[in-house]
Amino acid sequence: MRTTRFGVAMVILLAVSAAAGASPSERWYLITLDGARAGHAVQRDHTDADGHLTHENRFAFTLTRLGQTLELALTTFVTEHEGEYVSMRFVESSGPAGREQTHDAPPEHADTTLELLTPSEVDVFVADHLERGRDSWSYAIYNASSGWTPVEVTTRVLGETIATIGGAERAALRTESTLSVMPGVTTEELIDPATGESLRSTLALGAMEFVVELTDEAVATSDFEPAELMAGTLITPRTPIDQPRWAERLELIVSTTGGPLPDLLNEGVQRFERLDESRARLTIDLDRRQPAGDDAREAFLGRSSLVDPEDPVIQQLAESTRADLDPLAWPVAMTHFVADHIDDKSLSYGFASASDAARARAGDCTEHAALLVAMLRASDIPARLVSGLVDAGGVWGFHMWAQAAVDDGDGRLVWRDLDPAIPAPPRWFDAAHIAINVLEQDGDGGVNELVRMVELIGRLEIEPAP
Questions:
Q1: Structure confidence at residue 425 as a pLDDT band (50, 70, 90)
Q2: Three-state SS for 175?
Q3: Contact between residue 387 and residue 436 where contact means Cβ atoms under 8 Å apart
Q4: Buried/exposed 321-358: b ≥16 CB within 10 Å, e otherwise
Q5: Are residues 416 and 170 in contact, defined by beta-carbon separation less than 8 angstroms?
Q6: pTM above 0.70, yes or no
């Protein structure tokens, strides 16, 4: 399960919410998932001797995944001075794994038509709009988890209400907001009518609902039984697939309830044929040859925060699989190598990098896929991460695997799907996979893929085609 991207979505949501309203030096929030405790957040402001103001937002998630505990910590630092952004930093840790992104030297011009505000300026901006009785406003900010790409925020006031916040009744304004990094997703929020301070935020992603509520430190950091993350992400078909690991060709009807079905991938071994607004036929055929495109070599050989083909350990592992093999056999050999190398099939990792997975030899499908992509790129084989669904024996659940651009024998590159977390017995892959997203070219993907995936899973039905 790609848990880190849930965290990143929450980071952006809460950082935007926390920016809106006169800020005390420290503010605590309780995070719940479908009514069960899932963690806490804290915002702190620091001013150094030179007058640089740093906004720190820390998010600590504790969840269970099929009985295993997952702990994930995400921290963002945004530093400003005299109305200008100075730098940003994003730190992520899950178990022994961790990574950090630093963003220095903001661009001279922001890529947005909206007014770009620092967190402190948002305080004044929102308070001013409330004082003037405005019922909507829009602005842009930078956030450490998304780098120097502006996050555009649009908020609309829905009305007044009385809400119980932290055990006490408070007057509040009901609002809804949209963020450019999560298109199609609306966040409901209760804010203080005078300051704009965020009292409660609700983010619904498919069948899952995150709620973030203002509280105090004692409540936020108290012990709790963590929520089960996987509960709302499994799809049970009426007719199960017989022996999914041996399937070489499947025809499926996928449909949605409560909205249109977005276009799914029509690449690799998968063919997408729309039947109507909410239904489509998917044909997954392992013998299908789909060209990878002229840009595959340039786009999918580089380094990213998750995939570092220049890491000496990654290169050593890739070289250890080298043999006198044809262009497809070598990626298949790497697939089975990764399946054996990661010997601790743990669900307690959030989303470790390939370098972390190579050294820890632990992880779930995301770590398997990231390590395989890194080894392929280290071997000068274009590769990318794919997220979607897999039949896990009667239920479909979130999964991640790899695609490699290999020579089909006629001098052209074609995408071949490879799954090191579930190496199929007769071949390198099985047809009981539904590809939904190809992650962005740098391997990071971002929030959009997560939001699209989770929102879709919550209303998706899958059945064998008649």
A1: low
A2: strand
A3: yes
A4: beeeeeebebbbbbbebbbebbeeebbbbbbbbbbbbb
A5: no
A6: yes
Q: Report d(CA 198, CA 345) in Å as an integer.
A: 39
* Percent of the chain residues topping a pLDDT of 90: 40
Residue type, 140: A
Give the Cα separation of 202 and 86 in Å (integer). Answer: 31
pLDDT (average), residues 190-199: 87
Task: Look up residue 377 and give its DSSP letter.
Answer: H
Structure-block tokens of residue 402: 């790899």
CA-CA distances (angstroms) from residue 114 to 35, 76, 131, 149, 180? 36, 23, 21, 13, 12
Residue whose structure tokens are 């949501």: 13
CA pair distance 227, 223, nearest whole angstrom:
13
* DSSP 3-state percent helix, strand, coil across the chain (nearest 5): 20, 40, 40
DSSP 244: G
Identify the top-confidence range among 40-49, 300-309, 346-355: 40-49
pLDDT, tens digit (0-9, with 9 covering 90-100), for 433-447: 999 888 754 444 444
List pLDDT tens digits, range 211-237: 999 999 999 999 988 877 666 677 889
Write phi, then psi, for 104 (nearest 5 degrees): -105, 170
300 pLDDT above the threshold of 80 = yes
The SS3 assignment for 153 reads strand
Residues 403 and 376: beta-carbon distance below 8 Å? no
Query: What SS3 string covers 326-366?
Result: CCCHHHHHHHHHHHHHCCECCCCCCCCCHHHHHHHCECCHH
